[in-house]
Design goal:
Layout lengths: L12 H13 L3 E7 L2 E15 L2 E7 L5 E5 L3 E6 L2
Antiparallel strand pairs: 1-2, 1-5, 2-3, 3-4
């Protein structure tokens, strides 16, 4: 865990709604997200959005069916596919 774990910065309602629509539409997202100094890039199939301790997360899986729990304010860019 890094030092900004308690400093969650809410994302826009518009972007949150785009994530919700991607889940409903079974639409994949190319994401770039950062955890500490580590940058992750992947195509994720979003499954759910969750809130835990006043932080929002995207739950999704990659092409290998590996689950990811990505804090929304750690996402640096997103491209909705299809």
């Amino acid at each position: 865990m890094n030092n900004d774990d308690n400093n969650y910065q809410p994302i826009s309602c518009e972007l949150y709604s785009e994530y919700e629509l991607a889940i409903i539409r079974n639409q994949k997202i190319k994401l770039v997200w950062q955890v500490g100094e580590q940058i992750h890039i992947g195509i994720i199939k979003p499954l759910d959005l969750q809130t835990h301790e006043h932080q929002e997360f995207l739950i999704g899986q990659n092409h290998q069916k590996r689950l990811h729990k990505i804090r929304l304010d750690h996402i640096r860019s997103q491209e909705f596919i299809g």
